Every structure is written in structure tokens, then in C-alpha cells.
Amino acid sequence: GVKELFESLGVTSFISAGESYNPETSEILSVLDKAPENNIILITNHKNSILAAKQAAKLSAKKVSIIPAHCVGEQLAALSAFNESDSVQNNVLNLTRAVSHAKTLDISIASKDTVTGKDRIKKGHYIAFSGKTLTVNEATLSLAAVKAAKLLLGKSRRSLTVLYNDTISYEEAVSLKKKIEGAIVGKLQIT
What we know:
Blueprint: H1 2-8, H2 25-34, E1 39-43, H3 50-59, E2 63-67, H4 72-80, H5 88-101, E3 108-109, E4 114-116, E5 119-121, E6 126-130, E7 133-138, H6 141-153, E8 159-160, H7 170-183, E9 189-190
Parallel strand pairs: 1-2, 8-9
Antiparallel strand pairs: 3-6, 4-5, 6-7
Helix pairs in contact: 2-3, 4-5, 6-7
């Protein structure tokens, strides 16, 4: 899963967090104190974990820099900008810049019929928000994925990373990749 992906990119410590679970300051501090490094870059993954991360950084005897990412996609953007041979200060600057330039959308399944603004959402539809704005509202995952890809790529981007969980199979993910590639004009790299 995500932990293994991050470890393959050089992450040495991992704390689970997200919409339904926010780590305590003491849990973050424990991980920081156990880390072998004295200079640590901590990349958050949800707005609710930023305050606890900042408090743990203040309490730690180590030098901790916080990169406030809000989702896994932003964390991946930050990690892609990390340069092991660069200084911590330059890495913090580059990782923060990468997060600010990242464009992400999470596609979810609507759990109930509802109305947001002037949009009607049906239970079971595939939806995605950009901030508080509904940007994707489709009856099928393939339509939602293609629309999300077009929104994220715009006219200038040619690289797209798609993460999926265990609610879809590898075969379904490959099929979605082909549908996205078929809908986007020009050269596109999907990982």
C-alpha cells in the first residue's frame, strides 16, 4: 500500500493518519525521537494533523521541519522533489514548493443522495471536490476518472499519478488507465 510506496521513496518513519484518525502529539513525538536522524522533515497528510505535528516538533530535541501537505498526492509531490545530496534547508524549500504546485483530486463514492449548491449528487455516484467545489459527479468510475484526469492535466501537464485502493482490482485499474490515455490528446505518462 501507501506505506510501502513511501518506504521505496526513502521514507524512514511512517505514522498513519487521515480523515478518520489523527495522531496524538505524543505519538508523533515518539516517532521523531526514535528516528536515527537529527534533522527531520515531517510531511503531514491531512489538515487535522498539522497542529499536532507542529507541537511535536517544538517538543522534540531534534530539528524538525514541517511540510504541510493535505493528502497522499501532495506528499508524493513533496517526496519527488527530495534530493538526498541537498541541504535540509533547500529540501524544505523544494518540498514545500512541490506541495504548493501539486494538483490532486480524490474520487469517492457518494454515500447518500444530496444537493450541494446547484448540483444534485446521487448515492453511488463517483464524486470529487477541489476545495469545496464539486468538480466530478459521474455515474461510473471510468467517466469520473477521465473527467478528473482532464481537470488535473489542463493543457500543459503531461504526467499523472493514479493511486487506487482495494475497492478496485488491478485489472480495473489498468482498464481505467487505458480509458484515460484514450481520452487525453497528446503524449501522456501515467504511473
